[in-house]
Amino acid sequence: SPADKLEEPAKVVDQLEKGSAYGKVPQPAGHEKLEWNTYRRDNARSGSTPETLPRKLKALWNTTVTAQEPTPHGRAVTPPVVAEGKVFVAAVDDQQVTALDAKTGEVRWRHLVGGRVEAAPTIYQGLCLFGANDGWAYCLRASDGELVWRFRTSPEERRLVAYSRVESPWPVPGVLVNGGVAYFAAGRHGKTEDGIFVYAMNPFTGKVIWKNRVDNSKLETWYDNHVNNLLVGNKEAVFMDQLMFDLKTGEKSRTWYKKRSFGAKR
């Protein structure tokens, strides 16, 4: 007899989920502009700082974040970021973000999510923002790890298996905060699973400002073959692979910054 017809995946209606800390994020005291609050410190991913370091450095503390070892497909932990008196790091395969006291190394909080966290969090005005391979973008209260909001990027409820993990076809590799707006991209490749979705939103409320889609299903030229990666930003636009997106409208155009080594891949 013929096989039963597969059901269509359920469409996602409510993408924003508010947490217990929604609307309850105090502004941090003594926020330092020179903090290393995002991957490679700044939105250009420069990996540099104007701070002056002493000639001799000494270790203040060390701690174990995860018992997992690096695997052939990636590292065990993300690069750390430092802000607001804490060190923030994600244990990739443990699917959790940990905050440590910057002076003592003591664990302040841990937050478990539904998928691998492959990129360092971004800390912004009391918020801890990051993405995961479960298809959600997360915003936590940086002081205690309580959920402010999370946003489901997938247009429908669908799963696949990657590196022995059940994941979303629309993973979120990280969040960029540029000019007070949070930007992130969700997806694996412009030619798979409806492409890559790029969002701009209010980091405090999770309200979407604009959304754009990268669809390379009809590949015209070799340089239309786009993959998702950490976003890079400046005062004019945010960049992903060889595309640039207008900060206010999300309108996309092609750029050759990648060929000129603008920023860095994770």
TrEMBL record:
Among SUPFAM superfamilies, the record links this protein to: Quinoprotein alcohol dehydrogenase-like
Coiled-coil spans in chain:
none
Which intervals hold domain Pyrrolo-quinoline quinone repeat?
60-157
Q: Return the InterPro entries for the record.
A: PQQ_b-propeller_rpt, PQQ_rpt_dom, Quinoprotein_ADH-like_sf, WD40/YVTN_repeat-like_dom_sf
In Swiss-Prot or TrEMBL terms, this protein is called: Pyrrolo-quinoline quinone repeat domain-containing protein
Q: Supply the source organism for this entry.
A: marine sediment metagenome
